[in-house]
Amino acid sequence: MASYALVLAILALASSQAFAGDPSPLQNFCVADNTSNVFVNGLVCKDPKLVKAEDFFYKGLDIPGDTTNPLGSKVTPVTVAQLAGLNTLGISLVRIDFAPNGLNPPHTHPRATEILTVLEGTLYVGFVASNSDAGNKLFTKVLNKGDVFVFPVGLIHFQFNIGHTNVVAIAALSSQNPGVITIANAVFGSKPPISDYVLAKAFQVDEKVIDYLQSRFWIYNN
């Protein structure tokens, strides 16, 4: 009986991992119907008879993003929100532009692993592992043109332009809608705000420090 229960537990765990990402499509395609008022986990399919080649096409990723902001970076997404044909396909991508010293600040994608390729310039990138007895280990690397780095799903990561020229990078993500949680924005810019007492205790600082941080203008980069 004990071995039978163990097998069931292993199967349950395997099943939960197998369905942790976007579900697999059950047809050739399911182009998102953005006119539908039906709310589902994902987006409703357009009638296949009405699908056109344009539903699988996006134009403009060659256009540099505007990096004239305090972060010095700009993310241009191509998710299901911009390309309806991505619906149910479990993939999307972004272009990221960086001015010199530009930063894509620490953030997570709750539904996707990210694989990034540098097309021009030099980036300092990294991610932080989840809590463990040894602490939260930081993995970093300096990337040059043609280099590739992967950020595991859900982990906090960042990219920073340490060079003197602009940087262009392309990243693919393993979800049609990967989501993004920018850490500073979420912690200090939530609406309504998190109690300053809670944050002061969590960060072990004076509440005045939290009040100052919560008063800042937080930039939403993507």
Automatic annotation (TrEMBL):
Protein name, please? Germin-like protein
InterPro entries, per database record? Cupin_1, Germin, Germin_Mn-BS, RmlC-like_jellyroll, RmlC_Cupin_sf
Its lineage reads: Eukaryota, Viridiplantae, Streptophyta, Embryophyta, Tracheophyta
Signal peptide span: 1-20
Q: Give the principal location in a single coarse category.
A: secreted
Cellular localisation = Secreted, Extracellular space, Apoplast
Q: Name one GO cellular component term.
A: apoplast
Q: Does the keyword Signal apply?
A: yes
What organism is recorded for this protein?
A: Colocasia esculenta
Q: Which family does it belong to?
A: Belongs to the germin family.
What keywords were assigned to this record? Apoplast, Disulfide bond, Manganese, Metal-binding, Secreted, Signal
Residues bound to oxalate: 104, 109, 114
Question: What GO terms are given for molecular function?
Answer: manganese ion binding
The residues that hold Mn(2+) are: 107, 109, 114, 157
All copies of the Cupin type-1 domain together span: 59-211
